Amino acid sequence: DLLAVKGKNLPVRIFEILREKEGATEKELRFKKLFETSLALYRKQKWDSAEKGFSAAVKEYGDPTSEVFLERIQQFRQAPPPKNWDGVKRLTEK
Q: What is the pTM of this model?
């Protein structure tokens, strides 16, 4: 994710460590690809496609991070981000 904390403009990239690549299972590699694809679609504001991918990640892998992105997609459908949105989640509270 890309997060900007309250009072800061520069985002911080957040990573989720799954496992060392050498020890990853086929299932973990499929999840990684699904999540990365969904995240790229999310950042391009392709809500339907991103939602489909994140929903699959929740259903097939039980991924809680994908649930966060599904919630954000619903929020953006109600109040879309600006055209020049940079994909950053700007936090308004500490």
A: 0.89
Question: What is the pLDDT, as a whole number, of residue 31?
Answer: 96
* Residues in the chain where the model's pLDDT stays below 70: none
**Cα distance between residue 8 and residue 12, in whole Å:** 10
Angstrom CA distances, 25 to 18, 19, 20, 35, 80, stand at: 11, 9, 10, 15, 37
Could you write out the three-class secondary structure of the chain? CEEECCCCCCCEECCCCCCCHHHCCHHHHHHHHHHHHHHHHHHCCCHHHHHHHHHHHHHHHCCHHHHHHHHHHHHHHHCCCCCCCCCCEECCCC
Specify the pairing of strand 2-4 against strand 89-90.
parallel
Q: How many angstroms separate the CA atoms of 32 and 48, rounded?
A: 19
